[in-house]
Every structure is written in structure tokens, then in C-alpha cells.
What does this fold into?
Amino acid sequence: MSTYTTTRRGFFGAASAVALMLSACGGSSDSAAPAADEAAADYTLVKEGTLIVASDLDFPPLDSFEDGEAKGFDVDLSNEIASRLGLTCEYLPPTNFDAIIPMIKQGGKADIGNSAFSITEERKAEIDFTDAYLDSNLGIAVKSDATAKDEEALNADGIKIAVQSGTTGEAYAKENMASATIVPLTTVTECMAGLSTGHYDAVCADLPVVGNMCTVSFTDCEVSVEIPTGEQYGIVVSKDNPGLTAAINQAMADMQADGTMDELKEKWFGSVSE
Amino acid sequence: MSNTRRGTKWGLAALVAMLAVAFALAAPHSAYALTTNKATARPNENGGSGVIGGLATRLTWEGTVEEGEKVSSVTLVLPEGGTFDGSSTKITVLEGLSRAKVEGTATPADTQLEVTFSEPIEAGYLLRLEVEGMKFPADGGEVSVGGSYVNQDGEQQLAESKPIKTIANTPLQALVATLDEAPWVQAWNSNPFLGMFFKPQLLATAFATLVPGWLLCLLIVVIAYPFAIVLGLIFALMKISKNPLLRLIAIVYINILRGTPLFLQIYIMFFGLPMMNINIDNNVLGVIVIAINASAYLAEIFRAGIQSIPQGQYEAASSLGMNYFQTMFDIILPQTIRRVIPTVTSDFITSYKDTSLLSSVGVMELMMFAKNLTSVSGNMTPYVAAAIFYLIVTLPLIKAVGYVEQRIANSERGGGPRPKGKAAVKAASAGEATPLPSELGVHFEAARDDAFGTSVSPLAPVAVQEV
It folds into this structure.
């Protein structure tokens, strides 16, 4: 895969790469995308003309990996943003969720992380967020025939709650259900598979995703608690690349204005939440 | 929580109101126009689950506006010693699950945080305040968050939240704080590589918090291995047995286990067994998977070891009237064990490292702890600390394997200390190069060329002297 070439190039050092990109971006003017030209001088990319996206691709309906292809709301969003910036969108192979922010911070592999990242102060300390593009909440899924279903019953010794490592669901479970054992796993699918087989008593994760999983893949489970947290998803960009954040914000504002954003929400969620 | 508030008028007012509530009214929650749903704090103990006082953390406070009420501002109050100074507040107003467009500003002032809204919050709305960077009182204890709010009728008291358990600073946290301050640490961390892989603060934290995971890894492999050895031996004997059925069973068992990834075996066991309503404790299941997996490799090692013993020894044993089991346990296996020790130790090292795969199914072993700490810190240092924990065990074992191999190689070559026989030969063949037992054949040939007429074998002079 061509991304691996990029990976290797990353090792040559950010500085030379940045210099290369700058000159390259300035030179390649694309008459079809005047907006991109203006922004091109302001940001740097790992690979010229390409927006490389890191995602765990295991978070349907936002991110998923089907038949070797990235799919989902976030994926459509990344593609749309890339095309508005006059770039080609390229997804890295599925990356562990908790590795994405360090990867973006370190640089050299991907330009943005778009994997349903809730905007939190903690994460803001590491990287920059774009403006929010979607509202979300948390949810707790349990087996339909379970006895312990609400937060109080689950906050007990001997209860195991599976969470995806590095997520707001994990933070919520640790903060609010401290008596239970919190088991951090790599993907939400792993959490749900373990819940379905009776390995864990509950899963705490983003509501749209647990809702989707309970209706599509793990029909013996149900969402027992909807936790209103009002969190919002944003795209992760390196702090060294404020130009890219601004360019994406502009693209998303345009999408909001011309109705593309609502179309996407309609397509993936069947409704427009805002 | 302590009732000793002093300083501001607000504090006094709160005290009076609290006393009033506690002693006179004993009013239920419905008396509040803004009910306190909960107040929680994010654990800020590195690698732990405690909420440490005097260290920045995040307070999450939630309240609901009751029927027929409008709330225009809320003030949260911490007990003496706590502070909101330097905090930033995220204000979220929700109607059901959707965000309401209500703006607000938060003004921290020591133990108080005043939050005012652009427009009053309507009845039925949920108010969520996330105060990042606030500090609880340094001495720990149970802390309740109180305060007041302003509705259409003026200022009212808030119900105290359920107490949040906080603890005083831990020695580890104090060490981390010292490291945070140290100039050399700051210089060290400013290097992206060192800061990402060898951050001193995180190394200290990781060494302290990874220990339980490390012990579990060791426990799993140490318990699993004796079972693996017994199982491996049984299957090795089955594989070399003359009974075709036993051979078939052993071949299928060994080939399936050696031919599939351990990761897959773990998944099948951990997700498959519960589906059959067989519920075994995670750690025990971990021991079982590791033992079964290792047994297949050990079976092959033992089989090779047994078959490396020359056929002549079986013949010799049977000529002495030994049956199969006597031959095996008295003659063959003792020699086999000696020969396979290095390979078995290598396999033990592999099994020990393989316990890391159990983290993917929720066994709280070393990798799990490291992964946890990494996801919290966004830094690779915990993985490096985990690597060190693995090496503490594997390096000495690798060294030991090398040493044992050397010894075995020496002894098989005939080197090393040998009992009398050799001394006798040395004395006998005075001056001549002493033939080593393993080289006897060669020397015998040579000796025949030189002195065929005088001696039939190199040992002949001894015989002559004795005569």
C-alpha cells in the first residue's frame, strides 16, 4: 500500500518534509479549486496533494471497514473536506483508537484523525480540534436478559464493564461506576462481542454506535441507559498545523451553509439532529 | 464535609441555609427549582482510580431545572481548601439528548465558581458543568459540592451533592510532581523522542502501577507451564506410540495448535466457551489457553528429544529385560530432559511473552496496564516500561539457556570434568596425546597404523601394565 512509503518518508524528519511540501504545494496550483490554493500555503501535508486520515474504522455508523474499504459518516465527511480542499483523501489501514492522537501529535504518518473524537479539554492539551461537526451522547449497552441494567446496579463489585480504550465512555465509566471493574479494549466490536457472549456485564460507549450495534450486529443486547453528555465530535489536527485546522473549519462551514452536511447526516442517521 | 466556612457572605449564607435545611425543614429535593443530580470527579491518580486533593482534576456537576422554573445563574461552592482558580468550564445544556443553544460564562473565584447564562434555562433542561483544572482540598476526605442558583424568585440554595471520595497526595504523585518541576526533566522531555518513549514521570508511574500486571503474567505462565509439560509429554509419547489411533490424536492435536495463531485460540476459548454457557474465570482461562498452546510445542520438543536417543539404548534396555515404561522412565527420558532443557526454556520465554495477547480479551496483565496508562497519557513510555518488565524475566533466562547449552555441548563433546577413567588413560599413555572418549575411534585407527604389531587397541598398554 502506498501509505507505507509515506510512513518511511516520515522518518526522514519532519523539517525536510515540511520544506518539501511547502515548495511543492505552492507550485502546484489547481485552477479548479481556487479556495484550496489560498489555503495551500498555510498548511503542510504528509504527502503532497493527499489528505491522509487515521481512524480506527470500527465505529459504525461513523467509521467502518467493509470489503477493504473505509465507510461511514466520518469517511464521507473526510472525502468531502478533501475534495473541497482540492486534495485526494486517503485512509490509513485501521489504527487503534488510542494510538491516533499520539500519531497525529508526533506527525509524519497522517494529517488528520477523524474517528468520532469527542472534543475534550484533555485531548485539546495534546492536539487541536476543528469545530464540532456532530453532537453525541454516551450509552450503556447490556444483554437484554440481564438483571443489572441501570448505572446504580452496574456500579458494583464483581461487575465488568467493557469500554474502548481512550474514549470518553472509558472516562465516564471510571468516574461514575468506580466500584465495577473497567476493562479497556481496542475496539467497540470487541466490547460488544464480549458483552454478547456474557464476558462483560455492560459496555459504555458513544450512544449512536452502541445503538447501531445493538440493532444491527448484536441483537441480543440493548441500550439500557442513555447518558446525556452533550459531547461533540471534532477532527483531530496537529498543533503544528493550524492552517489545516482553519482550512477544514472553512470547508465544514461551507458544507453546513450549502446543506451538504445535513445531506450526510440524513444519509447516515436518517435525521438531522441540529 | 466540614461546616466551617468563613470569609465571604456567600459562605455564611450557605451555612445558615444548610442548617435551616438540615434542622428545620428537612425538605425533600422537590423543594429545589434546580435539583442536584450528581457531582463526580475524574480520577487524577496516575495509573490509579483515586481522586487526589490539591491536584488538578475535572469536576462534573449535573442538575435539572424543575417544572415552572427558570434558572439564570448557578454558583458552585467547594469546601475550604478547594479551588476553582485556573479552571475552565464547559457548559452544556441538554433537552433530553439534544444540545440546547445556551451560552454561558464561568467566573472562578477561589472556592466559588459562578456560571451565568445568556438566557435563563427553561424547565426540564439538564445543566452539565465540566470544570477542568479545579482542585479539591489537599488533605482528601469526602467532599460535597454545594452552592446556590438564581431563579425568577431570586437567589436559592443548591442541595449538596453526594460526597465525592478524595484522597491526600500519594508518595508516587509527589515524586511525579517533583520530576515535573526538575529542569533536567523538562530539558529531557523537550526532545521529542526521549519525551515520547522515556518520559521520567511516566516511567516512575509505570514502574509503580504495572507491577500487578507483571505479577499476573508471571503467575499465569508459572502455573500453566507444569501442566503444559505434563500434557506435552503425554502427547509426545502418543505421537511416537505404535498405536495408530493414539498417533492420529496426537498429530491432530499438535498440528492444529501449532498451525493456528495463539491469538485465534484465545478468541475461540474466551468467546466460544461462554457461548456454550461454560463460564470460567478470565485468569484461569488464560492459564488454560497458555498451557494448551505451550503443550503442543513442548510435545514436539519432547518427541525430537526422545528420538534423538540412539536406538541402541532401547535394544540394550530390552536385553536387560526392561519393559517399555522402565526403558522410557529410567533410560530414555532422563537423557531427553537434559537435552531439551535449553529448548524448553526458550519455549517458556515465548509463553511468558505470549501472555501479552491475553490483554485483548480483558485479562488484567502487563500489556493491559501499559495500554491503559498509554491511552490516558497519550505517551509511549508505559510500553517501554512494560518492555523492561518483560526483559527482567527473559534476559536472565536467555543467559541461562546459553550457559546450559554450553555445558551440554561441552559434555557431549566429552569436555568438562570426568571421573577416574580418563586419569588412568592419561597415566598410561604418558606423553602421548590423550584420546578423548568421543574421539577414541579416530585415535584407534591412528594407533593401529602406528603400532599395530604391539597393541590391538589404545587401551592395550594399560592391560599390559596390569598384567
Q: What stands out?
A: Chain B touches chain A at residues 38, 40-43, 49, 58, 60, 88, 90, 92-94, 96-99, 126, 128, 130, 132-133, 192, 196, 270-272, 274-275, 279, 282, 360-362, 364, 368, 371-372, 374-376, 378-380 (CB under 8 Å). The two ends of chain B are 103 Å apart (CA to CA). The CA atoms of residues 47 and 209 of chain B lie 6 Å apart.
